[in-house]
Specification:
This protein is an alpha+beta fold. Helices cover 34% and strands 21% of the residues. Keywords: Repeat.
């Protein structure tokens, strides 16, 4: 099978190739750091005056335009037409478009094709979304790690979890490098952007900038991290001011970084580009999920030689790695493809926004019927149509943990009507369990420390999800020991398993009365 795949790939790559210009900008950082304001300024959109917290993720697809001739980002995007994909005859027109594209040399295009749309993803700073952000992290992205530069990076807490600005930056750096699996020593590129320059006295700005840079340089000393992180310069902007010269410098820096990406201008099979554009056209029409069977049908209508099924799977796999679609090669999930990347966030949003109605969610519990109820509202009816798929997808990403329980007698699976949602747990452990039972004469434990970085949020959630899928939560002093960063489960009559996640991950096996 592997041999066949390789052969298919080689054959595919010797065929009709066209250059692909693909990049994305991801703006991350703590809650209220100024991400949305920065993005509006970057893309030339009206800068919001009224503060509105970002809910989930805002994706401005194609809003930032890159001019291939000047190799620069265009400042104002208003008035410039987006490459427009017509609804009728989509296939024919797309394939014609690709033909034209292929005939031109890279530097000599006719007007409209000079401009490549670059998606800008504006992430929500709230903790609850961190667990899903991993699905958007790709190795060919440019990340703007944003923070409020007017505050003290070492001591000012800027987050619901009350961690410092520096700790928040460290968390983002480690998550990005962990999830993007960098195959290249420079990419992804991480650029640090401090906002709120206007709140610092003019004469103190140079001092403040070098102070921040020193703090950051002292924090990131690992060579493998430093090669991705731009530490020689700190952009310090007033994100509210569209004429801030440093905004222009930031734009220029992003332009250069885009072209330095080894994948920029890489040649790909023509069919890949046609199918990709076709997906984009379907998203514009409001579709966010399609079946594998439908993709197969589309593939036969692209006007050029269709891809074989293996090649099609390869294409979908590549698109998934790039974060453009969700295609999971798992028997329970492979029949559908989510073509709109914001869809997963909307699924999570559907759960998050239900907290006031479903109180048990604060303890991380959600019944299957509650989930169906949430999705029966008009807003989320699309998820109800593909209920099985989306439930499985949430389980796959460890957002939902399925409790797998089996009958002792016949080994058959028992139906459990409840999911656990680890990332939603907010209750704190107020019991005396830790003092009384996590003591050296009753337990053995080991602690995982992550060298060079902190523990990304999704890892403890994943660990807790898999533990809960197997064992039952321990009840102690009439309280379930399932709290934020702390869970205890019953292994057998004498033993409990405890997991504590703070800056490290600690796992303990606790005996009822002795070691
Ligand atoms: N004075 C000043 N205010 C800023 C600057 N950047 C952002 N703000 C303000 O800070 C507040 C938060 O900005 P947002 O852009 O919404 O922050 P965010 O990071 O997108 O917040 P979330 O989406 O909730 O995580 C808003 O009231 C902005 O007007 C800046 O450079 N200077
Ligand atoms: Mg925002």
């Amino acid at each position: 099978m592997e041999y066949d795949n390789k052969k298919d790939l080689l054959q595919l790559l010797s065929g009709d190739l066209v250059p692909s210009f693909d990049s994305r900008i991801l703006v991350v950082g703590a809650y209220e750091a100024g991400k949305t304001t920065l993005v509006s300024n970057l893309i030339g959109k009206v800068i919001p005056i009224e503060r509105q917290s970002t809910d989930g993720i805002d994706v401005y697809f194609g809003k930032l335009l890159f001019d291939l001739k000047t190799q620069k980002l265009l400042k104002k995007t208003m008035g410039k037409t987006q490459p427009d994909i017509p609804n009728d005859d989509i296939l024919q027109k797309l394939s014609k478009k690709i033909d034209e594209f292929e005939d031109d040399s890279v530097t000599d295009h006719s007007s409209d094709q000079d401009v490549i749309p670059i998606p800008v993803l504006d992430f929500a700073g709230q903790i609850v979304y961190h667990a899903t952000h991993q699905t958007f992290i790709t190795s060919h992205g440019i990340y703007l790690i944003t923070f409020n530069g007017s505050r003290d990076a070492l001591s000012d807490k800027e987050d619901e979890r009350r961690i410092t600005i520096l700790e928040n930056i460290r968390l983002w750096v480690s998550s990005i490098l962990l999830y993007s699996h960098p195959g290249n020593k420079d990419y992804p590129r991480l650029i640090l952007v401090a906002t709120h320059k206007d709140l610092v006295c003019q004469k103190d700005i140079p001092n403040r900038r070098s102070q921040l840079l020193n703090t950051l340089s002292a924090c990131f000393t690992d060579v493998n991290v430093k090669s991705h992180l731009m530490l020689q310069k700190l952009f310090f902007v007033n994100a509210l001011n569209e004429n801030d010269p440093e905004m222009e410098e930031l734009r220029a820096c992003i332009s250069t970084t885009i072209t330095e990406n080894p994948q920029w201008g890489q040649r790909v099979p023509k069919q890949f580009l046609i199918l990709e554009m076709l997906f984009a056209a379907l998203v514009e029409e409001g579709k966010n999920i399609i079946s594998f069977e439908d993709v197969k049908k589309l593939n036969t209508q692209i006007g050029v030689k269709p891809l074989s099924t293996t090649e099609l799977e390869l294409f979908l796999g590549v698109q998934n790695i790039c974060g453009k679609i969700t295609y999971i090669d798992d028997p329970k999930l492979q029949n559908y493809i989510v073509i709109d990347p914001t869809c997963l966030i909307d699924v999570l949003k559907s759960i998050v926004t239900s907290v006031p109605i479903i109180a048990s969610l604060r303890q991380g519990r959600l019944t299957k019927s509650d989930l169906s109820n949430i999705w029966s509202s008009n807003k989320f009816s699309n998820f109800l149509k593909h209920k099985e798929y989306f439930q499985q997808l949430l389980v796959h990403y460890d957002i939902l943990s399925e409790m797998r329980r089996y009958d002792r007698e016949n080994g058959k699976k028992i139906y459990v009507d409840c999911y656990i949602v680890p990332c939603m747990i907010t209750t704190q452990n107020t019991t005396t369990f830790v003092e009384k039972h996590l003591t050296s004469d009753k337990c053995v434990g080991f602690v995982f420390e992550f060298s060079a970085s902190d523990v990304p949020d999704a890892i403890p959630c994943r660990l807790i999800a898999s533990i809960l899928s197997i064992w039952n939560v321990k009840s102690y002093e009439n309280v379930d020991l399932l709290c934020y960063g702390f869970v205890a489960v019953v292994l057998d009559r004498k033993h409990n398993l405890v997991v504590k996640t703070e800056h490290t991950i600690a796992v303990y096996i606790v005996h009822k009365d002795r070691k």
